[in-house]
Amino acid sequence: MPLIQVSLIEEVFTSEQKRQIVRKLTDAMVEIEGEAMRGVTWVMIQEVRSGEWAIGGQPLTTADVKALAASKNAA
User: Among residues 61, 50, 46, which one has the least CA distance to residue 6?
Assistant: First the structure.
């Protein structure tokens, strides 16, 4: 039984986006291993508090990630 763990900074993704993440990751596993895996594929989303996730020694906040996404979408 596969367990897919996804860590996200809190309040970046909506409930609908998290449902899409779960659905698409499950679909990816089914594509690799076959339909029989759908019922036994677990996806766990864990949210990390804003500021408690860091890259290169620099904490990231919810606002940082949203600003990054906004600049990426504007490009």
Answer: 46
Residue 13 DSSP code: S
Domains and CATH numbers, the chain: 3-74 (3.30.429.10)
H-assigned helices in 1-75: 15-33, 62-74
Tens digit of pLDDT for each residue in 16-56? 999 999 999 999 999 999 999 999 999 999 999 999 999 99
- Write b or e for each residue in 29-45: b if 16 or more Cβ atoms lie within 10 A of its Cβ, otherwise e: beeeeeeeeeeebebee
- Asked if 13 and 21 count as a contact pair (C-beta separation under 8 A), the reply is yes
